[in-house]
Each structure stands twice: as C-alpha cells, then as structure tokens.
Write a structure and sequence with these properties.
single chain, 420 residues, alpha/beta, Aspartate Aminotransferase, domain 1, Aspartate Aminotransferase, domain 2, seven-stranded mixed sheet, four-stranded antiparallel sheet, 13 strands
C-alpha cells in the first residue's frame, strides 16, 4: 500500500463521503481531530436545531413544547437509531445514560433468570460496565457471581475461552461489542448464538460500535443492548443514551427503575405503578430535552451516508493507519495494540508506547493532533469517516513520528491529568 501524502490526497479526492465533512463545525481546519470515539464533532444542523429549540420552543412555546414533540422525542429518535443497529423502530428508545440503561437491563435480565447465578463478561469490557455488573450482582445477592473471561494478549478475547465460560449456570452474557482500548470487535451473532444455546440472555454495549460498524441486532436474535450517542453518533457531550429490548422480551421484563415516564398513564398521577406497554416501560424520569434533541442531527447524517459506506471507508482508513504505523512508527518503538484483521477491529486503532501519556500530551499541546490516551500505554486514534480524511490519518502519523524523532514528549510530565 502506498503511504505517501500525495496518495492520501488522491484517496480523499475519490472519497464519496468527503462531502459530509462540510456538515460539521470545523473551527480549526489545521487541527487533526481523531477522538471521535470519545466525543464526536458538532454537526452544523445540531447547532441550528438547538438554537431553535431554545429560542422558539422553550422560549416561545414554553411548557406547550411537551405536547408539540418533546414527549415523543425518545421514541422518534430511537426509531432512527434502530435503523443503524439493525432493529425494528419499536425496539430502540433514547433514555438516561449508558450506565443507567445497562443497570436497568442487566437487573431485569437477572430477575428473569432466577435459577441462574452467573454473569459472564470479559476483562476488555469498559470498566464502568464491570462496576455496574458487580454492583447488580452484589445488590441482588442470592449467590450470584461474575465470571470474568481474561484476554490472552490484552487485545482480543479467544472465542474458545468465552465458549468455555458459558454454561447452564449463566443468566446473562454482558459484553461490549467493540473493546474500548484495543478496538477488538466481538462477533455479535456468534456470541449471541453461543449464549442462547446455553439458555442465557445477552446484553451488548454498543457504545464504540453504533455509527461506526454495521450491526444487525434482529438478524442475530440479540436480546438486549445499550449504547451512548456522543461518540460516533455525534450527539454532544453527555447526550442521553439508547437502549434496545427485543420485541418478544418487552412485556416479559420489568424495568427496575419504575419512574413516571415508564408508567402506562403518567399524567393520571396514580399512586400505584402500572408499566407502559412495550418499550416505553423502560423509560424512567423526565428526559433532558435539549440534549435529547441534539442527538438527531448526527443520526440523520449517518442515515444519509449509509452505515455500510461508513464502514467501508473506516476499514480503508484504519488499514491505511496500520500501514503507516508499520512503515514509519514501528521502527521507533511503537507497537500495534489493535487487531490486524480489520474484520475484528472497530473504527479506532490503538498504538502503544512506553511513554504513551507524554507522547499523547505532546501531540495535543504542540502538534495539533487530538487522539486520547488509555492506560497503561494506549494512544487511541478514533476515525470517524464522516469528517475524518485520509490526510488526517497521514498527518497524525507524521506528527507522531516527529514527536518521537525529536523527543518532544520528554519535556512533559508522566503524571496523568484529571481527564485523558
């Protein structure tokens, strides 16, 4: 593969998705932003939508806004996200945070399997998910436990090791589809089938997958899923998350957070809780309307581009980054901390260096590149194909090479800042 800058320019010139970059706010054209796997860029349409929501809806219509679109927004936007994750419109709803949604669905699933005592997960899972799994198991008690499948190489999970962990004692298999450090991509359909064969339910965290890789929840027969909207869906910092419940489970499972928005008739203000039919029962409290409305613009852009086209470009860009790493960075002591096989990799590539944190700081503070760092040594380059170019990838690698060759990182402290 050619790795020169002119080749990157030619790839951008032929890119059918290149036009989408203009749909985002790019305040500093010289900045190489490769942190879309933590926080996506601001869609220009979202900026306009929120301004109108503040001025015309909240400002002019006041409380009448609830009857003029706000109340239905969790289901309307959820139905759009459903198209990105291979679900039916009535199986996805926007609600709460990823953590709250995961807790709701995990507890519901455990209560649905009272004779089974084990939750299977892996050590590549996002730590917040592990904390919540442990907390739910301790809260429910009854001899429940967590069975942790460990990675052999810190990059991926061996399919045989996972299969060996799933037996007749397992109530729920709870995994993040795309590992947050390495980008390792679980085979969603195969793992779901494995769990079902053992009689277990599956709960997927799609936070590093939704909007970056094609997902077919219904095709795989998946049971439950959660995901955030502020990464590849470009919903904004702290934007509300989404949850998926397979239609056949919606009436069977109960929401352990029985808030008023999940009530069958919330505005009757009955003192007794009666769950709403279908997916709406998995709502809890009043949604954050402004940030909820901010989710829709990024989702609309992905639907316009098409998730298959997004994935095709993502694979080409991550492959290009890996080729650049091998040629220009590996000789400088940089290791690849992501799978080589693009079919087993999401849309971010992790590179390892013993001084990774200091290298990351040098890139951000003086080289005009924003990746992020994940301990112990991972510099993550998150590629968002709607606004990242091939030249972005080339520039990021070239500037990283310069940091190492010129030893620019050595002036920075190795003490971690509050946020990385």
């Amino acid at each position: 593969m050619r790795t020169d800058r002119d080749h990157a320019l030619s790839l951008d010139a032929a890119d059918p998705l290149a036009r989408f970059r203009e749909a985002f706010v790019v305040a500093d054209p010289g900045l190489v932003y490769l942190d879309g796997n933590s926080l996506g860029r601001l869609p220009a349409a979202t900026e306009r939508r929120l301004a109108a929501a503040v001025r015309e809806e909240w400002g002019a219509r006041l409380v009448r806004g609830w009857g003029e679109g706000w109340y239905e927004a969790p289901r309307r936007i959820g139905a759009k996200i459903a198209r990105l994750v291979g679900a039916s419109p009535d199986e996805v709803i926007v609600s709460d945070s990823t953590s709250v949604n995961l807790w709701k669905l995990l507890v519901a699933a455990l209560l649905d399997r009272p004779d089974r005592r084990v939750v299977v997960t892996d050590d590549l899972n996002f730590p917040s998910d592990l904390y919540l799994i442990d907390g739910a198991v301790r809260l429910l008690g009854g001899g429940r436990s967590v069975r942790l499948v460990r990675s052999r190489d810190g990059i991926g999970i061996d399919a045989g090791d996972l299969a060996a962990a799933v037996d007749g004692d397992v109530a729920v298999v709870a995994l993040t589809q795309t590992a947050f450090r390495s980008g390792f991509l679980h085979d969603l359909a195969a793992v779901t089938a494995l769990a079902h064969e053992a009689g277990a339910l599956v709960l997927w965290d799609l936070s590093h997958s939704a909007g970056a890789v094609p997902i077919d929840l219904d095709g795989a027969g998946a049971d439950l899923a959660v995901g955030c909207t502020y990464k590849y869906l470009n919903g904004g910092p702290g934007s509300p998350a989404f949850l998926f419940v397979r239609r056949g489970l919606q009436e069977r499972l109960g929401n352990p957070l029985t808030g008023w928005f999940g009530h069958d008739r919330p505005f009757d203000f009955d003192l007794a809780y009666a769950p709403a039919p279908g997916l709406r029962r998995f709502l809890a409290g009043t949604p954050p309307v402004l940030s909820l409305l901010g989710v829709e613009g990024g989702v609309d852009l992905l639907l316009e581009a098409g998730i298959e086209a997004v994935r095709e470009k993502s694979v080409r860009q991550t492959e290009y980054l890996v080729a650049l790493w091998e040629e220009r960075l590996a000789p400088l002591g940089v290791s690849l901390k992501s799978p080589r096989d693009p079919a087993r990799r999401g849309s971010h590539v992790s590179l390892g260096h013993p001084d990774g944190l200091r290298v990351d700081r040098a890139l951000i503070e003086e080289m005009g590149v924003i990746p992020d760092f994940r301990a112990p040594d991972n510099i993550r380059f998150g590629i968002a194909p709607l606004y990242n170019s091939f030249v972005d990838v080339w520039e990021a690698v070239d500037r990283l090479r310069r940091v190492l060759a010129e030893r620019r990182h050595e002036k920075y402290s190795a003490a971690p800042p509050a946020v990385t």
